Amino acid sequence: MDLGISGRWAIVCAASKGLGLACARALAKEGVNLVINARGEEALQVAATELRNLGVEVRTVIGDISDASVREQVLAACPQVDILVNNAGGPPPGDFRDWQREDWLKALDANMLTPIELIKACVDGMAERGFGRVVNITSGAVKAPIDVLGLSNGARSGLTGFIAGLARQSRLAGHNVTINNLLPGPFETERLNKTLSVAADANGTSVEAVSEKRRKHVPAQRFGQPDEFGAYCAFICSAQAGFLTGQNLLLDGGSYPGTF
Question: What is the tens place of the pLDDT at every residue in 172-195?
């Protein structure tokens, strides 16, 4: 299927590795030019080289996307934002009894307020041009909270509620601008490994044992691969996905047990 987005421009945040890189890779394979951002220069440049080899233009901006000046650089580097993929590393796992106000504010800034600021900067221009796709990478924990990820549960749920209203504004949806959330379950990334490590320490067992137990609770009997996630993201950004908006799309191998 031709996704109909060749030649468009996309901003992909936290794109040096993991799910962000997978999304950037899938878009590049569809001919989408990229502005990619991450905090680590070396990993970002390695990712940029890989993506350029797919035949598209790739521009890089190093820095923390939650910093307003970095957001300005990212937006300035993109000639025209047709696609925005919001992504940020989740806050650390732990016990809420140990978190201070500053921990909560940092989580909200990275995983709720920063995506909102980028959306605000992009969607009106998208509407004027008659095409726009926003994908927010959140977490399966929005639907099935994980006890040690309280900071993430709270911040990402706040973003989810905001998007539920924004995506349904007729001045956006009525002008071919869609906003959706992608909710990953357990994918083989550094983030998953850190979560498994914390769980192992808390239970006095090995990471391998915790990983195997977690894998057995996934109906697919495995963890997801980042490129699977990227392909799904690319379709949501496609010309064919214009009737899909305001949705929370769960990719978790069947782990979520609910009907809705």
Answer: 999 999 999 999 999 998 878 887
> Does the model's pTM come out above 0.70?
yes
pLDDT in tens, 13-51: 999 999 999 999 999 999 999 999 999 999 999 999 999
Q: Does 157 reside within a domain?
A: yes
Determine the distance from the C-alpha atom of residue 202 to the mean position of all C-alpha atoms in its chain, rounded to a whole number: 28
Determine, yes or no, domain membership for 2: no
Cα within 13 Å of Cα(183), Cβ side: 22
DSSP helix/strand/coil, 137: strand
From CA 112, how far away is CA 66, in angstroms rounded?
10
* SS3 category, 34: strand
Residue 202 within any structural domain of the chain: no
Handedness of CA 230, 156, 143, 124 (dihedral sign): negative
Q: Token digits for 16?
A: 């040096």
